[in-house]
Amino acid sequence: MSAPRSTAKPLELAPVRPAFDFLESKIRVPSLRPGSVSRTALVNRLRVTTAEAVATVVAPAGYGKTTLLAQWAERDSRRFAWVALDERDNDPIVLLRHIAAALEVDEPVEERLVNALEKPGSSIWTRALPRLAQELAHRGPIVLVLDDFNLLRTRASLEAVAALVEDEAEGSMLVIAGRTPPRLPLAGLRAGGRLLELGVSDLAMTKREAEMLLRQSGVRLGEEQTAELVEQCEGWPAALYLAALSIRDGSAEGLEPAPLSGDDRYLADYFHAEYLARLRPGPLRFLRRTSVLERMSGPLCDAMLDDEGSAHELKKIERANLFLLPLDTRREWYRYHHLFRDLLQRELVEHEPELVPVLHGRAADWFEDHGDYESALEHASAAGDLDRAARLLTTLALPLYYSGRLTTLEGWLARFERAGLLERYPAIAVQGCRIHALRGRSDDAERWLGAATRGRFRGTLPDGTQTIAPWVSTARAWLCRDGAAQMLADAEMAGRGLAEGSNWRPAALVAQGAAVFLLGDPDRADALLAEAVTAAGEVGATETHVVALGERALIAGERDDHEAEDSLLDELHELVETAAVDAQLARSVDCATTARSMLRHGRWNEARSALNAGRELSPFLGAVPWLGVQVRLELARGFVTVRDAEAGQELLDGALDLLARVPGLDALGAKAEELQRELDEAPEQEGVHLAGLTRAELRLLPLLATHLSFREIAEQLFVSRNTIKTQAISVYRKLGVSSRSEAVAEAQRLGLGEHLRVVVTNDR
Hints:
Oligomer: single chain
């Protein structure tokens, strides 16, 4: 084999990948192989399941879970949506996109769902997930199959599936197939008789089914021999099939097969002794070496093996039924059965360990040349090529972030958190700092910025910038640990060094404009922020775009230019609704500006909702102190307006704490002192008894006074109907009543009438 080629390449921006980027095989019911043994009894059992909301099919590899479900789909009158899960579905937005794509197989999904998934908005929980649940409800009755569920491990993706179960329409069903029991809250469904569970004992083949499998594999055994083989294999379909292959490929008929137990190590020994050992050296080498690939094609294998003819070899392997599964109808892409691939990888490490990094490196070359930077990153990491992995992650970080794939990105960033790696790769460290700051993680942002400052970088960054210093200066300006004057100096230094069109330029302009505003020059600040708005829109820097609009709206408000303020806020809110905004800072800006606008227009109920949402986000505002103080002061002023002095004081105390830690924010300090005087002069609220109600229950209470149904209230508060029902029952219990009307009357008696009048007035 030739030596691996050099991996040194200039950094470049990763292309934006389509929102619904998937292989056809992921979202279609698998085709049944000719001669598949019919699992009639199990299929009929599944066909009559109508009361159950969820079915689990759990067993080790080789128990025919996928085949069984495909047979069921072929014979059931209900519509089926199928998703074959893989590692990337551990990012919840990827998982939801694949489910939507599966629904598209029958008919197009609603455009609003497509928009929510392409640009998840403030959170997948408030837009994408509810809309997908509605789409599933409208399709009912429907069976949604999530195959290979054991590959789903992240809490976010598991919670997304649990939410779909909670909102499932009557008559529809979620089917979970995997090797291990799903980590989902299914106890309630089990107790209510709404859970069907199929396990190893259910999926084990009967003697009759085993006879059919052997016969269709070209093997005929006597009744007693078949019974012994079934007992040895414990009904495991894969083991029976492997035994049939062994007999068919040369064992004397009637020879008792080696005993099988289902243990992975024993199965590997069986594979090797009874099948792989019979292969010629060339095909065996091909199998071992291509096992480093999760998915493979002829051209990819040719490049990785530095050879030709791989497409032909793959077709030969498929015809030999050697555990190679096609991933598309054109037979261009394949994957090995997971269990078979595991065995081949162990074989490769045992026989050719020196080739493992070489093969991964060549796979990384091929994927990078073909624009699949994410797969290239996986192989570079497996090859131990940290330099290339860092370069690829630097290229991918912001595109992944702006596309809403936070789970994927943060998983990759975590791999570089080992001692010394952040200093070694400062471009990774400074991007991690930026993302930690936007998500409100103050300590992490500081730590990663420190590593970036200590590190050294040579080369050209993905945005064309020639040195790491402008990136570091931008991040330092946002973290603003030395006051507004130093913030301005850092931002100006960054602006001078950033390449034209850099996706870091909008952040530098926002920091510069905000610093100028804090230093008392609103006209110049507004001009800089307007430039930031334009630049952010051009590169898709959503959070920066939101902050720039919020700052401009704040300046317009202080000038009493309410027409300009409203126009800017309309633009801001539309951006939040349509773009992938998930950072706590950007969401808090949206809440604060929404509350400000609603209060000015007398829409008190909507203002309270925005204020409460902003208050819940306030713990995440410490990473960017200048913005954190601004948002807290706006929210506190809003609570003063709605006569909630306690909430206002809480937020003001948080702002004062930030100001005490960061010198040089005198303008914000003066505003905080003014607001403190207002709070000190505010009259005490007397006679108000909250009856032990939680914040969520107090938020629900005024809506009980309206004509809205529980479902409509749930939609307004972005929670499930069951959540509203549970909260209402708790309110009734605490108030000692049994109906909505009685709850409203008792709230009036206890002095909570002000909360009720806000909503009732709006409804009229």
